[in-house]
């Protein structure tokens, strides 16, 4: 009797969390996989003709899906490295003994706690063709006013700029904590030997920060592959000329369509996205493991 | 290289960390900066290395004023307490790093690094990462990295404190050997008087930022200037008995009057009577009366605990002492004892007629 209680007890403890995970994560995940293979599936009537690969055939022949893949890839390939590079620089500056350090560290964190839609509206004003501050600043460099939001050729660039900006705070905070884990004695030692700031950065800071950079890049790759929210405040949809489909927007678009029902197509696209992220991040982690030469960065 | 500190002072806000320190260190000597924690010894080292600026005073290297020079222009080699080996570089890269900064060609600096590595016995580990080395090996690499620039002064901050007891003895002999082979003027910081005594040519004893005494280890031990130095040097600790001087005589707390005479000006002063454990002769006939409380046998010697004037003193004895009863007398070998004024720690001497 007592034995049985001992066996049940731990299950009871984890039950609340476990039930949540099963209902809201595991079940939908499995359901999506199944859904992707159901042909002509109707969500409301749960009718489908048969299991097969028709959905995948459809999306790979859909120019919008190809476009979405291209956009998502480009977005990740630009936003992740650029935002990481900028963040490494800013985090380094914030890690120095500067005035208003606490204030600056807080203000860099602000975008993270403000609603992406509200901030997006602000960006919409900044991107404004005639009155936006971005065009105003660019005018000082002799750049003609760019119609960021109305000209399809610039839509993607606007999205990328906004995307880079919105993941900076998270990236900076993670990198800053990585920097603070580096024993300041190394810097003292290098300075005693006469190393200049750049040399110290190149030979000590960067190698010791590499594991953190790798980590934050993996996290950011996953999150930027899912670019979707960013489209709404700036364009209320996939760009002014339907040229900004991303994979997640494509999924959303097809889930929304009721006649004819396209749940299967959306589910198939979701599977493709899942594998894209899986392969991409595995590759990243593999490279990172191969490239890292030391184990203990803290001591 | 001769190292001179002239009226060196360091204040942190209003706290005086080092107060008006003047010492001369001769070329090629191994110097220990010794004192309890917070005595300012690390601060002195950091001022010599240029990591922290001085508040007042001068630092001279071979007569040249380096007080305002940045660390890397002083020609110092510094070994940190935690070694501070770059964990992302191999042993070889670590040793080479100071030359890499100086833009010495790779082949040349690796050649030099290998020579130094041989000197400190780490030449077998050149391709290892620091995390794959033991504490003693890391220490050796850190010394090699400090030596590769051919520094005028080698500075070691608590070089032995991160090592276990056995390795500690081995490493301090190594530091001595390396110093002897390179003949580099070396200053090391330690709080352990045994480390300082065993390898240093001269010891600088500090307390609360003030120089207490600078001398050869044996002199410090045999002839301390004040009560602090006497207490700090030696293991077991020096015996220290409360006493006072009245009518020019030394009187113990139980009223025992000793034969030693002091100048009139010391009358009615409270003093300490200090003496080393090995400088006591126990006998049946003459001296200060005491009672043998306990004997602990250490093998080659014994420690005898004797209560004298209600205080316990320790006597080291090599087994020769033979007494008839536990009630005994003690006297000092060659009158070897010290008397210090209780309040100031100042040493006073017997009046010689």
CATH fold node name of chain A = MetI-like fold
SS-derived structural category of chain B: alpha+beta
CATH architecture term of the largest domain in chain B: 3-Layer(aba) Sandwich
| Main CATH class of the largest domain in chain B | Alpha Beta
Low-confidence stretches of chain A: 295-299
| Average pLDDT level of chain A | 87
Instruction: Compute the number of helices of chain A.
Output: 12
Total strands of chain B: the figure is 21
Distance between the termini of chain A: 51 Å
Overall geometry of chain B comes to elongated
Number of helices of chain B: 8
Radius of gyration of chain A: 24 Å
Strand content of chain B: 35-45%
The CATH homology group name of chain A = MetI-like
Shape of chain A: globular
Oligomer class: heterodimer
Please give the share of residues in helix of chain B: 10-25%
Q: How far apart are the first and last residues' alpha carbons of chain B, in Å?
A: 46 Å
Helix-strand topology string of chain A: HHHHHHHHHHHH
User: How would you characterize the largest beta sheet of chain A?
Assistant: none
Search tags:
heterodimer, A: 299 residues, mainly alpha, MetI-like fold, 12 helices, globular, disordered C terminus, B: 353 residues, alpha+beta, Rossmann fold, OB fold (Dihydrolipoamide Acetyltransferase, E2P), 2 domains, 6-stranded mixed β-sheet, 6-stranded antiparallel β-sheet, 8 helices, 21 strands
């Amino acid at each position: 009797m007592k034995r049985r209680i001992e066996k049940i007890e731990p299950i009871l403890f984890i039950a609340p969390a476990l039930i949540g995970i099963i209902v809201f994560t595991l079940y939908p995940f499995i359901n999506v996989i199944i859904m992707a293979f159901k042909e002509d599936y109707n969500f409301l009537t749960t009718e489908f003709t048969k299991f097969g690969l028709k959905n995948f055939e459809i999306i790979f022949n859909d120019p919008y899906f190809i476009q979405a893949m291209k956009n998502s890839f480009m977005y990740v390939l630009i936003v992740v490295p650029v935002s990481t590079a900028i963040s490494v620089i800013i985090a380094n500056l914030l890690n120095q003994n500067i005035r208003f350090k606490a204030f600056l560290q807080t203000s860099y964190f602000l975008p993270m706690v403000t609603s992406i839609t509200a901030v997006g509206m602000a960006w919409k004003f900044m991107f404004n063709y005639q009155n936006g501050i971005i065009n105003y600043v660019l005018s000082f460099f002799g750049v003609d006013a760019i119609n960021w939001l109305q000209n399809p050729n610039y839509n993607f660039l606007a999205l990328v700029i906004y995307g880079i900006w919105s993941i900076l705070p998270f990236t900076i905070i993670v990198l800053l904590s990585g920097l603070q884990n580096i024993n300041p004695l190394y810097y003292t030692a290098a300075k005693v030997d006469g190393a200049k700031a750049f040399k110290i950065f190149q030979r000590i800071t960067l190698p010791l920060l590499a594991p953190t950079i790798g980590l934050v890049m993996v996290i950011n790759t996953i999150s930027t592959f899912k670019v979707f929210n960013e489209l709404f405040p700036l364009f209320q949809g996939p760009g002014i000329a339907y040229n900004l489909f991303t994979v997640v927007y494509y999924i959303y678009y097809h889930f929304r369509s009721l006649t004819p029902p396209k749940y299967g197509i959306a589910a198939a696209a979701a599977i493709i996205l899942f594998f894209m992220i899986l392969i991409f991040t595995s590759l990243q982690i593999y490279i990172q493991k191969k490239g890292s030469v030391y184990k203990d960065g803290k001591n | 290289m001769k190292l001179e500190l002239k009226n060196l002072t360091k204040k942190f806000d209003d706290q005086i960390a080092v107060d008006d320190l003047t010492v001369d260190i001769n070329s090629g000597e191994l110097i220990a900066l010794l004192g309890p924690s917070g005595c300012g010894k690390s601060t002195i080292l950091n001022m010599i290395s240029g990591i922290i600026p001085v508040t007042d005073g001068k630092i001279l290297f071979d007569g040249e004023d380096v007080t305002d020079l940045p660390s890397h222009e002083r020609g110092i080699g510094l070994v940190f307490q935690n070694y501070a080996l770059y964990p992302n570089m191999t042993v070889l890269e670590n040793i080479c790093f100071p030359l890499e900064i100086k833009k010495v060609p790779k082949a040349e600096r690796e050649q030099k690094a290998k020579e130094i590595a041989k000197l400190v016995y780490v030449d077998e580990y050149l391709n290892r990462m620091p995390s794959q080395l033991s504490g003693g090996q890391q220490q050796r690499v850190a010394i090699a990295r400090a030596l590769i620039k051919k520094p005028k002064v080698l500075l070691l901050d608590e070089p032995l404190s991160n090592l276990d007891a056995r390795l500690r003895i081995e490493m301090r002999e190594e530091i001595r050997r390396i110093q002897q082979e390179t003949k580099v003027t070396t200053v090391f910081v330690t709080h352990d008087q045994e480390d300082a005594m065993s390898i240093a040519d001269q010891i600088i004893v500090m307390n609360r930022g003030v120089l207490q005494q600078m001398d050869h280890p044996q002199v410090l031990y045999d002839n301390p200037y004040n009560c602090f130095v006497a207490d700090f040097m030696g293991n077991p600790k020096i015996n220290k008995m409360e006493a006072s001087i009245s009518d020019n005589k030394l009187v113990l707390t139980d009223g025992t009057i000793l034969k030693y005479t002091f100048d009139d000006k010391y009358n009615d002063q409270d003093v300490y009577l200090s003496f080393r454990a090995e400088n006591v002769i126990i006998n049946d006939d003459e001296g200060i009366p005491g009672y043998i409380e306990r004997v602990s046998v250490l093998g080659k010697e014994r420690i005898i605990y004797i209560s004298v004037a209600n205080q316990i003193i320790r006597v080291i004895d090599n087994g020769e002492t033979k007494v008839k009863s536990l009630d005994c007398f003690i006297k000092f070998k060659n009158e070897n004892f010290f008397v210090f004024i209780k309040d100031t720690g100042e040493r006073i001497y017997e009046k010689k007629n």
